[in-house]
Amino acid sequence: MAFNHLPAGAHDAFGPLSRTPVTHSVPMANTSGPGRPTAPADPRPTPDTVLDRLSRGPSRAARITHTEHLPPRAGRHAVWPDRIRTDVVAAIGSAGIDHPWEHQAAAAELALDGTSVVVATGTASGKSLAYLAPVLSALADGAEAPNGRGATALYLAPTKALAADQRRAVRELAAPLGNAVRPAVYDGDTPVEEREWVRQYANYVLTNPDMLHRGILPAHPRWSSFLRALRYVVIDECHTYRGVFGSHVAQVLRRLRRLCARYGAHPVFLLASATASDPAAAASRLTGVRVIEITDDASPRGEVVFALWEPPLLTELRGEKGAPVRRTATAETADLLTDLVVQGVRTVAFVRSRRGAELISVITQERLAAIDRSLPRRVAAYRGGYLPEERRALERALHSGELLGLAATTALELGVDVSGLDAVLITGYPGTRASLWQQAGRAGRSGQGALAVLIARDDPLDTYLVHHPEALFRQPVEATVLDPDNPYVLAPHLCAAAAELPLTEADLELFGPATEDLLTQLEAAKLLRRRATAWHWTRRERASDLTDIRGGGGRPVQIVEASTGRLLGTVDESAAHTAVHEGAVHLHQGRTYLVKHLDLEDSVALVEQADPPFSTTARDTTSISILETETEIPWGSARLCFGSVEVTNQVVSYLRRKLITGEVLGEAKLDLPPRTLRTRAVWWTVTEDQLDEARINPEILGGTLHAAEHASIGMLPLFATCDRWDIGGVSVPLHPDTLLPTVFVYDGHPGGAGFAERAFDTARAWLTATRDAIAACECEAGCPSCIQSPKCGNGNEPLHKRGAIRLLTRLLSESPAAEPSEA
């Protein structure tokens, strides 16, 4: 039997000087709950005061495992380069910014020199202004050209909300320049009647990689005047372009560069990123051009109080196999958000899942209604999948201060300028240190102090981090992982490029070393045809439809209310089997629905409004076969390997869990087709002698491997820019390809995303942290904080905690002194 774990499918304004302090004073009601405030809120409490109020009561105080105080920092001013137009400098001054920070001026200088640059500084450090100053100056120069359109610029954001927010900011900043700067959003929400105007007259077009891939590049003749004059390409929040999505965006940008060169333009790339490891290398890999990095943050920062918070164990409940149950991070976050809203503290609670955001919003509103009936309307949820008009209404309410509390997915982490926040709640480790600091940085206003709280989920990595704060506060952020040469990524983009403009020998270098071999395969598949010296697209359909750059594949599944026919939203096709299977609970705008029917052929899930006292979690089975072992190293008689695998997965059932506690109420079978995935994996084998030395007998071998697999999946995000939903695993006491006990961890994306390769390169440190996390857990036989997984297809059976510790200790005792990448 194989045991498996399958993956599921900021804007920072212009800088602190442009921020207007916002003070909210909400009367505080007297409450009797533990840790609830009982006195009127200070209109501007310090972060320590807010945290003290949250932790009142003996049970609350014990939940804080660590508090980190990040001291305030003074800013360092500079002057704008003299090549920035005086009217642009005056417009910036009228926005309240008299002098730039040093990093803003340095970035502008490089841009004016024609050098591509990435600004990787903290949240709210004014990265937007660093690239807008040279962009606005170039656009204003172009507006004075006697003939032609003048210079143009393209802005790329990972989300629609971020592009819309940037347009608002640019309009306000450039208002004194009159008609010289004409910003316009061009995305899926842009009305058809406006699109022609954007193509012909806008000189600052704000869009996203998806629209560039499907809407702009395939229609490049209609965009010829814009592309011919393209001076700058701005790539905001570029650290989000990682894994498969980042690899797709890298190829979209190469297609953009190719078409620009066809029209005689060679744009400069200006990138903004959260603090990242080696941002120049990541930006160069993303764009394909040499990029200079600026990482010295010269902006001021108020004090940040960062607390690590662990929910308590629920002594009256037992989970699967009798394991102790910890209070859910969702319930804990709802409690904290309730208290913060009552205090009048403007707060965003970041949640990893759409369902989690909806749950926290609903629970908080219910608790606020019992305190003050005017408060529930000041809390809402914000997530992807909402209709455009719903998103815009929430963004306006947040900007106006009408909302005091928001439960949001990462769509808001990058989505809108949320200046004016006092506190951020982070519900579970977001997967990378870069995302953690990006979310925490949303709080703080005009140099004032801010509170950030990381609430641990019942998860090996979260438990490890709240008890090892040095892993968060004493380690650099991760390197961005992407692989543009992934053949599953590159092949459809070669077809799209050939459809846009026939491919020639000169294009081989642009698209990478794997291009020549792939062109031969695409010819054999009759997707491309070589005529003379160029390859041509042979089909009538759009080549850009061959791939979904978000990595999901397939068209989104529409979620429709059966009784009215109303479209509630969408879910990615790759996530449909787990998210909207028959019987699944679906949350939307605070309302609960049950899925009555999933039609995979027509991509529709029919739902009915309901009020069940449970949530649902899908379960699956997985098998894996090795296609090719690319590299392997010995660990004594054990082997550590990396290569290509084929994974077959099938969702077979779902659990019903009680709300708040997560207690399992029952399991129901499902009849869904299996799916096959070809991807990359890291795996390790052990021998009979090593098992004997670790005192692992046949009775506990399956549980030992299974426990090590679960925990290693949970710990990998500490070493690669992924989260546990990006990766999967399988453990087998006797695998048919290795003929040995084997543990696999694989990328959950076709062709791989670079995560398994990163695991191979850091295997010793990764598996050491895995062993330490299991050993440090206080439970007796295993729990969700160490070796149990909520998505385990085998119901977390069998698992053997002590065996996993002994086996990993034995394996690591024979690991080489250097990591594979160092060797």
How many H/I helical runs? Answer: 27
Q: How confident is the prediction overall: mean pLDDT?
A: 86
**What fraction of residues sit in β-strands?**
15-25%
Described by the principal axes of the CA atoms, the overall outline is: globular
Structural class per helix/strand content? alpha/beta
Low-confidence sequence ranges: 6-42
The helix content is 25-40%
Separation of the first and last Cα atoms: 35 Å
Largest sheet: 7 strands, antiparallel
Q: What is the count of β-strands?
A: 31
**What integer value in Å does the Rg equal?**
27 Å
Would you spell out the secondary-structure blueprint of this structure?
Elements: E1 3-5, H1 47-54, H2 58-61, E2 64-70, H3 86-94, H4 102-112, E3 117-120, H5 127-143, E4 152-156, H6 160-174, E5 183-185, H7 192-201, E6 204-207, H8 209-216, H9 224-228, E7 230-235, H10 243-262, E8 268-273, H11 279-287, E9 292-294, E10 304-309, E11 313-318, E12 324-326, H12 329-342, E13 347-351, H13 354-369, E14 379-382, H14 388-400, E15 405-408, H15 410-413, E16 423-427, H16 433-440, E17 450-455, H17 460-467, H18 470-473, H19 487-500, E18 503-504, H20 508-511, H21 515-524, E19 528-531, E20 534-537, E21 557-561, E22 567-571, H22 576-579, E23 585-588, E24 591-599, E25 604-609, E26 614-635, E27 638-658, E28 664-669, E29 675-685, H23 688-693, H24 698-715, E30 727-732, E31 742-747, H25 755-761, H26 763-776, H27 801-813
Parallel strand pairs: 3-8, 3-9, 4-6, 4-7, 5-6, 7-8, 10-17, 13-15, 13-16, 14-15, 16-17, 21-25
Antiparallel strand pairs: 1-30, 2-10, 11-12, 18-20, 19-20, 21-22, 23-24, 24-25, 26-27, 27-28, 27-29, 29-31, 30-31
Helix pairs in contact: 4-5, 10-19, 12-13, 17-26, 19-21, 24-26, 24-27, 26-27
